[in-house]
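User: Fold this one for me? It's TonB-dependent siderophore receptor.
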Amino acid sequence: MKIKLGARSIKSNVSGIAIAMAVSQVFFSSAVYAQSGVEHTYHIASGPLDRTLVEIAQSSKVRLSYDASLVQSLKSAPVDGTFTPEEAIRHALAGTGLKLESTPTGSLTITKVDAATNANSGTAAAAAPASAASATAAAATVDTTLPLISVAAQRDSGGTGFVTESSSTFARTDTPISQTPTSVSSVNAAVIQSQSAQTLTDVLKNVAGVTTYGGNGLGVPGYAVRGFQNAAVLTDGMPTAQAGGLGSAAALTPTIAISSVEVLKGPAAILAGDAPAGGVINITKKAPQADPFHEVQVSYGQYGNVTGAFDTTGAITSDKKLMYRFVMSDQGGGQNSMGYNGQSDYYFAPTLEWKDSTTDITIGYDRTVSSNPVPQLAFGKTAGGFLSTRIDHPVGNPTDGFPMRQDDFFYKFEQKLGSHFTFVSKANYTETLELQRGWQPLTTLSATNGAPFMAFDTSSQTYNWAFENYLRAKYDFGPVKTTTLFGWDYTTGHFNQFEYNDGGQIVVVHNVFAPPSFPQLTGSGSGLSFALRQQQSQSGLFLQEQANWERIHFLGSIRNNQYWESGTAEGYSPGGVVTAYPTGPGLHQSAWTPNVGLLYQLTEDVSAYANYQMGFVPSNSPVYGGGTLPPQRSSQEEAGLKGNFLDDKLAVTLAAYRISYTNQNISDPFHRGFSIAAGGAVSKGFELEVSGQILPGLNVIGQYTYDDYVMPYNPSLVVNMPKHTASLWTTYNFQNAMLQGVGVGLGFDFASSQQVGSSSKYTLGSQLGTDVSLFYRHKNFGLNLAVKNVFNRNLYYSSTTPDLVTMGSPRTFLLTGTFDF
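Assistant: Here's what I get for TonB-dependent siderophore receptor.
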């Protein structure tokens, strides 16, 4: 049966007809096909493929026919530039496994890439369908070229396997990563699910230049990018915590809720204001989609770790303008490898989106309730080195740990103002409550493996508002296509920290392998001993220009940063007397931070780029004579190559960089309690990242990093990070009929030796972790058996103190099942 629809009705009917009929043909009643050779200018962001094709056909007035069920599951590549309609459609189809052909009648049609051609050329077949009906239609076969993952993960990855084609985080416009003149690393849902990644730390192993450190064994791990610690973790480009907070629940987002994790290298001041010099981490959450699909996920691991999760999305109204997404996850476990009560996490996230041709409104809420136990720890020995035997019992109480609750309310509003302008407004309000309760050694271990342990018992509250508003203008000046952004952002937060009287208790442990009983910590029940109350605010005005001219792609920006901070400290005596005093003079610092980058396409597959970025971090360190140190000023020079090969199935990035900053604060040797400014640090190195499909069924993501971090003001200072890191993850799906749907995965992550603390007595040797997986996918059902750290090696996070070092997990097994409907 042939269905003919006019241009006005196609948007509201094509998906419904495809679902109802499974196979249909769509024709545009428009001008003659002769207009297909005329060039048009397109500014179409990555999105559902069917909508992109509709927009191209409508604006170009070409006749296009296709089987609608082929495209419902797929996400288009961005189409931005001047092309003929055929070229625009081919851009949109990049990485989908579909191709454009001409019919005998002279119209255009879309078909699957021939299977035989796939086998010979390594071109991937189309991604798995996502809607309920299209999933049923395709249930008889399993695509054996792309990773064997669920429909939801395939859909949220754009149906392109391990390759992420575009990003809207850095430039605030949906721009192909291959045309962005800076280093942007992205790990999508396909990689995350194929690795059975459970934490942000698992995901970031795939990114060059990122090092995990244990936070001295306290709470959620921290991350360093290109050698610089305290990398901010954003959610959809927005902060959820102030710098004073103990942590952010963004790092605890369950992986079923994540569409991708991006790392923006360099100061990135245009995006994050006072971001550290190395870069920022951004978690992109899954968004509502019009085509319905639903996924149930259940996993079981060692130590009684059980997780149940549900992800559902679809349209609420018949015109598909109102959409929803709902993700819920609940994790619990008996105990961890050191005998503390197991980790528990609860996540609840409903989102609504209204989208028509001119207006896009998203509102949402998510709640995270977690309890993170004290992690597996290794203790340093006074004689040097670390205990090599894992401790399998708590050194403290089993209930010690780091509970957290975070509530996040957010909205995003986009309104087109004519054909050239779009107004964008985003905001979120985040409320975080945290506890830190446990015991830590005051010294390294004696010859009898003993040390005094001191209790810590604190709580904190963080209330944070973040706003971002900007106007986007798109104009073409002959062959030059420009996108201009002018905007303002503002964040303000209150941070309160409380220390309780039972903190500071000391228990002498004569042997950590036979510890005594520890007093139970009761928090507020023991009375308040100290309180810190701070308010931080920052504001930024920014201007950004993006221009494309044939092979040249330019991105430049300038930002004015304003930062304010004030606070008080309160001491509580046993008699209840409160002594309050300011933590320092009211702080106001400002800085201008320009950024500029240029990319040139050397060939169709390879581009060269270079950029210069500046950033700043406020300083509240007091100087003798009054006032505070000026802010740290950072700069980055970077150059590199980007390549997309094998019909865009394989992406490669090579980057060389140098990052430096000034005004490092160090203790004033003549005036105790004050600071002086020093030269800062220099981090230089190079990175290599590879992701995509090498052969049909063989998918890979890997990275290598060399980072040389030095502090010129004192070159003898020890750097507590490895110089060399690397990782590789590859999956292979068997191609013969007998083993259809079966695949295997193999991964490695490596770190060279690194020193801990300031003494050469404490060195962590080179380490190599190995992971393996066995996959099975049949129709809408999937199983993944993962074994992490197969050889049960002692793996360590980077650390700045030898007293205790956070360890990675021992050998663990995780079985995950998914069902799509």
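One thing worth pointing out: The mean pLDDT is 85.
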